[in-house]
Amino acid sequence: MSRPIRSSAQDADLRTPATRAWLTRLVIVGIVLTALNLRPAITSLGALLEEVRDGLGMSGSFAGLLTSVPPLCFAVFGVMAPRLARRFGPAAVVCAGMVAIASGLAIRPFAGNTAGFLAASALALMGIAVSNVLMPVIVKRWFPDRVGSMTGLYSMALALGTAAAAAVTVPMTRVLGGSWQSGLAVWAGLAAVAVLPWIPLVRARGTALSAGAASASVPRTASASVARQEGSASAARQESVTLRITRSRTAWALAVFFGLQATAAYITMGWMAQIFRDAGVPAGTAGLLLAVTMVMGVPLAFVIPRLATRLPQQGPIVVALGVCGLIGYAGLYLAPAGGAWAWALLLGVSNCAFPLALTMVGMRARTGAGVAQLSAFAQSTGYLISIPGPLLVGVLYQHSGGWGLPIALMAGLMLPQIVMGVLAGRDRTVEDEAAR
Known about the structure:
Layout: H1 17-36, H2 40-47, H3 49-56, H4 60-66, H5 69-78, H6 81-88, H7 90-107, H8 114-142, H9 147-175, H10 180-185, H11 187-195, H12 198-203, H13 208-211, H14 222-242, H15 249-278, H16 283-295, H17 297-309, H18 315-334, H19 340-350, H20 353-363, H21 368-386, H22 388-400, H23 404-424, H24 430-435
């Protein structure tokens, strides 16, 4: 006889507690593997961008435009995620997203021209976009009482994948014979592995991942579980129809906060190493400093969401992260080489606004449908806001001949980020605001 195991998701068709517990573990594996694949498509390209430009005959302006393609794709394709999830279920959409990432990463190195490379990149970014939006939904539905810890686990895996792709792609390319095509294509294998845990979850159409979550705090019979899940699914469908997310001030504040933190992150990934190099830091050390900034997100991405869920308002965390960013930018302006390691650490801490934003998405809505709409709205709107940032930094740098104006822009954007984060962190839900 199976020992009763408490689960956060009840399955109407798979009745044994042991089976439900096995599915829950499978969801955790799927979340981690998915998160690992949500940034290598971007950071692996950044590591080999010069080789890709030479290999495809890509112009400098087109290469600059390429840095703004990820947030554009995230904004455009992320809007589709809630509708696809209602039609096919979140598990099926994430599974398809992993297939799209694996296919795009496998195709793009061998496309043979710039247009084909861009099209294959867009395919991979489409998979990333829908998975970005649906991860908070899956966490909310399967682990409603562990949103902070599971968001932390997901964010930590995402940061690990980001840093690993940036640090490992170049040496791995050398091991594979020096071909940039092989160095980029190898990441398709990791995405292919991430497809596997979602396949049984897609086949189990009765799970809460497809039909809506119900808490397992109190044991229920199979018939009661079915009734509760049908009611939950009906409520979720009704909520998705009636909720007007644009009426919520919290949703707008969270979207702007998300966009400004994404702007800071893309500027950091694209330009921080160059800032250090222009200050006289050796190229190898500058790359290591950028890796340190990215790696800071691994432990903090697990700690910050857990702390955020224990606080009624997340404003103090927003302010603390913003102050770290302001000090880091001031250091880059005053002594970029002398205090390089300190500034890299501080900006790494500041960039952990991303897992905080994801956590607030799960906390600012009561229902799975509400989380889906809020996640799609905040991420799509936020990524649209973030598109001009890296391009504007490049323009200011080119026309001013130095980093004073670009760094002033970065610091200036941190101030509204703090204000919007404090507003988004207030203890309220978008359902209540939309209803009013």
